[in-house]
What we know:
Keywords: Coiled coil. Residues 12-53 form a coiled coil. By secondary structure, this protein is mainly α. The protein is built from one helix and no strands. 0% of the residues are buried.
Amino acid sequence: MESKFGILQSTFEKLQNNLKDADADLKTVEKELIDLQSKVQELTEEIAAKIKDVAVRKKKKSNEKDLLILEIATV
């Protein structure tokens, strides 16, 4: 009976340690996911800024082209 109790106690302790390790792993994964989410947000904002910049440049070129056409037409 004593050895069965020892085996059960040992098994229980191993399970407890495994649960602690799993909890630590989950905390690490959660932190990494939060960091990744932050990086994704930063990239999203950077991409949006670049898209806006391209749109502004495109509009500027279009305006310059229209101005040139207008100047040519008035000559």
